[in-house]
Amino acid sequence: QAQLVESGGGLVQPGGSLRLSCAASGFTFSSCTMMWYRQAPGKEREWVAGVSSIGGRTSYADSVKGRFTISRDNAKNTVYLQMNSLKPEDTAVYYCRAQGSFCNYWGQGTQVTVSS
To answer: Tell me, what's the pLDDT at 116?
Structure first.
């Protein structure tokens, strides 16, 4: 059964860093575009970053560009989100998503809290 499990969230001070991981199983990870979304309390879920299945092309929301880096390790069936220079407005539940012609899966999310 397809599954995405996020980890690495937690409490961090403004300006700090966290690395989120998303471990995939039960589907062909390497065939799927992988993305990170986040949802803050009272707000809509927003797209944060993506990395393509072929070529490893990356893209980012303007709000995180230059601070966050998405990457994937197909040998480990894992996608990462390196988050640097964190701001209080980055506080949210972060979700991993697998997307493609034959992929449509979401993780359960991991909480990231950036204290002030």
So the answer is: 85
pLDDT in tens, 29-74: 999 999 999 999 999 999 999 999 988 999 999 999 999 999 999 9
> Which residue matches tokens 């092309």?
57
Q: Are 79 and 64 in contact (CB under 8 A)?
A: no
Output the DSSP codes for 3-44: EEEEE--EEE-TT--EEEEEEEESS-GGGSEEEEEEE-TTS-
Quick one: which of 77, 48, 79 has its CA closest to 65?
48
Angle among Cα 65, 116, 68 to the nearest 5 degrees reads 15
**Are 80 and 19 within 8 A, CB to CB?**
yes
> Which helix (H) or strand (E) segment is 48 a member of?
strand 46-51
